Amino acid sequence: MPNISQQIPNFLGGVSTIPDDQKMPGQVRDIINGYIDPTFGLVKRPGFKWIQDVGASSNYSAAHYFYFRFSSSESYIGAIKAGKMELINTSSGGANLVTLNNSYLQGGHNDFHVVTRQNEIIVVNKSITTAMSSTNVSGSLTGTVASVADLPAANTNNGVIYKVANTSAAEDDYYVKSDGTSWNETVKPGISVGLDPATMPIRVVRNGVNNFSFAGAISWTDRQVGDELTNPEPSFIGKKINFAFFNNNRLGFLADDNVIMSQPNQFYNFFSVSALVQSEADPIDINCSSLTPVKLTSAIPKLQGVLLFSEQEQFMLFSDTGLLTPTTAVIKSISNFEMDTQVLPVESGINITFLNKTADYCRVFQMVTQGQGANPLFSDIGKQVTQYIPASVSAMFADAQNSFIGMYGQASRRVYFFRDYIDGQEVLMRGWYSWELPGNIQFLTTDSDTMYALTIQGTKLTLSRTKLNTIPTGSQLAAGQIEEQNPSFDFFATPSSTSYDATTDITKLYVPFELVNTLTPVAVQDASSGSTLSGLFLTPATGTDGTGSYFALSGQDYTTLDWLVGYKLNFQVDMPIFYFRQGEQVDFSAYLSISRVKFALGLSGQCNFEITPKNQETLDYDVTGITSNQYTYDKLPIDDRNVFTVPILQRNTGYDLKVKSTTPFVVSLNSASWEGNYSSKYYRRA
What Å distances lie between residue 306 and 49, 248, 259, 338, CA to CA? Predict the structure, then answer.
């Protein structure tokens, strides 16, 4: 049998659930706490820094969360629950920073939709039926004339109202009122003045840093002209508003199968300018006509128009002229994919992603809009990970800056990512991976290269954040800079205080967060006082006393050192079965014995390779980038160029191989090659 070797050029293919002999080189069975990056390879994800315990997790059960970004240096996470809104500063924490109460905010997790604009937050309660005001227009009708020529002199009839009937058709009736000098178009007396503010969306206004106020009921513009026929109520009246959006300087609402948009630059005016003529400034109120029942649930404005989504069909609201007006607006059906209406579609660059759920897992579709009049392009990006994403996923977010989408469920620690990198028309990277956060994820979002997370830790709801794309180069790994380089362990924070007991020889590092027994604690030395020595990490015991919760280190007085405390995160890559490949052909019927696998690692600390032969015990090979007599003093225990040889000595189908790391430092898998003995079993391959 000849000795052969084949290379795996990279691990940027991500996770695939298709059989191993059909996987592309670079695809693996699973990635936990990894991050695929076209520059650094498959990297252990950065850790989340603890910011603050927001409050008791029981107080936020079924809360609706949203993100409000005012500027690059000021942003907030909002929570709506039990008639109140709380806004949490993402920089300083500030639990319960702003608490606003309003009866309109009564509802559960899926009962709200929030849209933001500049310094305003508009909240839609999807469970409330809208209504017209019970207050009627004051005054009374003085009389009716056939035409405007029959009106008496205006200067002698100040304040009186006449109906101008014109023809016998009611559609051309209008009303005028004298101001003492002239007749002006007005509204019919005795009809509703307009919208009932108590049933309409509400507004919160930012007045300054950490300063918000409930602006009261929005001053919805009353009906100024016409009557119920010539200036009718908006079609969302008597229905529930499901979604709000801004487009073409108009505020838009979705209600059942209707799209209703305000007057331009008058976001709170949904009535016509005149009952005499139709103006381009009039509100847009248009219906989706379809053979099946339609309930619009979300919208995404695009250059070509506004994409509208329902459970079984997608539409485009557009105008041939490019400018939406009451006379030019058209809605056409563009596709009939089934979509989960509770998980809103997201936009990432030019791609729009939405989910379809089965009983056990999710399908993930991506849409790319084309030019005017052309149908969008669709792709099932979740096909290669069928049954990988559970049906319990309840939220999705996107990061256009880093070209990924993420999805998670509030009863799980796991978040699933899809990331790609496209240069022109060439796809250079595309793959799935997952992260496990320290607790059940309640909210997750990104802003530029920063990711914010609200997780449940024990009995607390906790805010944390991490920085993406902070992988340092070898020259940057100076000691005392561990925190600045976003280390690979979660909830890292500076101890609130330290103490040493000489009798027990125990040092206590008091932690600012609540202890979680299901996680493994770690204490990392960041720098010594008066020196730069850094990088030592220990696995401490935990406990609680009258001062608070602590990590305990024994053996000496550690209080003179600078520490970071947190919890280990487990990086794991499940390798597929290796097969001999000739071009596109995979020889799955040949005899192949794997002697060894060589992994080329980029910037990496310690990691281990776990080999489990069939029906045998698991073997661990711990490896490190530190080489005898070559380790540089006062540098972190990380090297940026390593090749590790892992002995296998098994049939290619007779073992499982996993790459793991629990240390608080980065690991980067660049490529690999396997060596072994190959026999074609005397078959000639054509």
Answer: 38, 10, 10, 19
Taking 3-state DSSP, the helix, strand and coil percentages for the chain, each rounded to the nearest 5, stand at 5, 50, 45
Neighbours of 307 (CB within 10 A): 24
DSSP 17-52: -S-GGGSPTTEESEEESEEEETTTEEEEPPPPEEEE
Torsion angle defined by CA atoms of residues 272, 276, 281 and 282, in that order, rounded to the nearest 10 degrees: 30
268 Cα distance to chain centroid:
29
Q: How does residue 476 score in pLDDT terms, banded at 50, 70 and 90?
A: very low
Per the DSSP assignment, residues forming a β-bridge with 307 are 300, 316
Distance CA 667, CA 44 (A): 5
What mean pLDDT comes out for the span 87-115? 82
Q: Which residue has the tokens 């996680």?
A: 519
State pLDDT tens for residues 142-189: 999 999 888 888 887 888 999 999 888 888 899 999 988 899 999 999
Cβ neighbours for 167, distance < 8 A, ≥ 6 positions apart: none
What is the side-by-side order of every strand in the sheet holding 351-357? 346-348, 351-357, 362-368, 377-380
Question: Which amino acid makes up residue 524?
Answer: V
90-104, 168-182, 341-355 — most confident range? 341-355
Rounded CA-CA distance 528/551 in Å is 18
Q: How many helices (H) and strands (E) does the chain have?
A: 0, 55
pLDDT in the model for residue 312: 92
pLDDT class of 628 with cuts at 50, 70, 90: very low
Determine the Cα–Cα distance for residues 78 and 96; give it in Å rounded to an integer: 10
Which residue, among 526, 574, 536, 580, has the nearest Cα to 556 in the 3D structure?
Answer: 536
Measured CA to CA, the distance from residue 177 to residue 159 in angstroms comes to: 6
Phi-psi region of 94 (alpha: psi -120 to 50; beta: other; left: phi over 0): left
Mean pLDDT taken over the chain: 89
Q: How far apart are CA 225 and CA 233, in angstroms?
A: 12
Task: Evaluate if residue 424 carries a pLDDT over 90.
Answer: no
Q: Are 246 and 115 in contact (CB under 8 A)?
A: yes
Q: Does the pLDDT at position 531 exceed 70?
A: no
B/e letters for 32-65, b = 16+ CB within 10 Å, e = fewer, are: bbbbbbeebbbbbbbbbbbbbbbbebeebeebbb
| Separation between Cα atoms, residue 676 and residue 654, nearest integer Å | 14
Backbone angles phi, psi at 316, to 5 degrees: -125, 125
Residue type present at position 634: D
Distance CA 297, CA 243 (A): 6
- Residue 193 CA to residue 315 CA, distance in Å, equals 33
- Report the share of the chain in percent with pLDDT over 90: 63
Give the integer Cα–Cα distance in Å for 397 and 442: 13
Number of residues that this document lists for the chain: 686
> What would the DSSP string read from start to end of 369-399?
--STTPPPEEEETTGGGTTTSBTT--EEEEE
Give which of 106, 45, 49 is closest to 470, Cα–Cα: 45
d(C-alpha 93, C-alpha 50), whole Å = 10
Q: Which residues partner with 414 through β-bridges?
A: 436
Whole-angstrom distance, CA of residue 503 vs CA of residue 505: 6
How far is Cα 11 from Cα 600, in angstroms, rounded to an integer?
Answer: 11
Which has the closest alpha carbon to 646: 587, 580, 573?
A: 573
Give the pLDDT of residue 629: 47
